[in-house]
Amino acid sequence: MNYNHLIYFSTLARLEHYGKAAEELGISQPSLSNAIRHLEEELGVYLFEKQGRNVRLTYYGKKYREYVDKGLSTLEQGRVLMGHCADRERGIIRIGAVSSAGPGRILPLMNRYTEEHPQVQFEYMDGTSLTLLEELKAERYDLVISAREATDPDISFFPLWEQRFVAIMPSSHPLAALSSVSPAQLARYPMIRYHDSTAARALVDSLFEEAGVDQITRAEVSDDFHIAGMVAAGMGVAVLVDSSMPDLYGLRKIPLQNASIRRNLYLATCKNSYVSDSVQDFLRFLRRAAL
Q1: Contact criterion met (CB below 8 Å) for 204 and 192
Q2: For 161-166, what is the mean pLDDT?
Q3: What 3-state class would DSSP assign to 56?
Q4: What is the dihedral of CA 77, 80, 85, 90, to 10 degrees?
Q5: How many helices (H) and strands (E) does the chain have?
Q6: What is the pLDDT of residue 83?
Q7: What does the alpha-carbon distance between residue 223 and residue 193 come to, in Å, rounded to a whole number?
Q8: Backbone phi, then psi, for 135, in 5-degree steps?
Q9: What's the whole-model pTM score?
Q10: 86-123 CB burial, b ≥16 within 10 A, e <16
Q11: Tens digit of pLDDT for each residue in 211-223?
């Protein structure tokens, strides 16, 4: 059985005439007859029966046609999708990013790119750096925006942006009126902390360790979006990567006193994985935007 035989079968089933089907397919009638005979021999059933000068599907032919037509339709959809992926202007770009890289960073750049390439589609998911890099190697993503530069020979890292940290709290909080805040001042209140699976956890912890104060842990969360949400709900204060995330909740962002902690965001790609022309073009766009 081969793809052409399925096309021949589907065409003959639709036209119910060997001559018309052969003409439409651009092959000789004997070639069509031989292909159908081989298909019937392989399946072990008769697919067609004569009806005057025409043919019609047998009961088994009708049942088989349901599967053939579905299969051919699926294959055609796949062919069209692959054509889109191969077209720089109509490709699909799969991106994974840490949550703080979304608003104010990667999402505006995605919007800028679609203004120039309106038919390109994006698939976007967020997560922790560790999970994103694992899924990048599993080819779940074409590229990842990571806050962690792993020592992995299969992944290439390109530095995009540097991020600072700020304290966040509701505007009604006692510390909200200050122009800057110290770790000792923050440590008086329950903290919403990064989970220890995140790249930011060790950086924030070092801030309090250097100040010689302990944090009062109210919750540990793996992404910036939910940290900001918990702070907005009044569960505590937090030290968060400086992004537009707290602005979405109307939170107060306050600079940290004498804090030098920073982290980099990296563009991560697999070194030996094939990527489409549209992905390659977007990667060039991102690197230019970071300069």
Answers
A1: no
A2: 93
A3: strand
A4: -120
A5: 11, 11
A6: 73
A7: 10
A8: -75, -25
A9: 0.70
A10: eebebbebbbbbbbbbbbebbbebbeebeeebeebebe
A11: 999 999 999 998 8
Pairing of strands 143-146, 262-270: antiparallel
Residues 6+ apart with CB under 8 A from 241: 100, 147, 163, 164, 165, 200, 224, 263
CB atoms within 10 A of CB 237: 29
Q: How many CB atoms lie within 10 A of CB 41?
A: 9
Percent of the chain at pLDDT exceeding 90: 76
pLDDT tens column, 181-207: 999 999 999 999 999 888 899 999 999
Q: Which two tokens stand for residue 60?
A: 């088994």
d(CA 80, CA 75): 9
Q: What is the DSSP letter of 171?
A: T
Question: Which amino acid type is present at position 222?
Answer: S
pLDDT tens track for 6-59: 999 999 999 999 999 999 999 999 999 999 999 999 999 999 999 888 999 999
Strand 190-194 relative to strand 216-221: parallel, antiparallel, unpaired? parallel
Whole-number Å distance between alpha carbons of 191 and 218:
5
Long-range contacts of 279-283 (CB under 8 A, 24+ apart): 279/91, 279/93, 279/142, 279/143, 281/88, 281/117, 282/93, 282/113, 282/120, 282/143, 283/143
pLDDT at 85: 66
Mind giving me the DSSP string for 68-99? HHHHHHHHHHHHHHHHHHHSTTT-EEEEEE-G
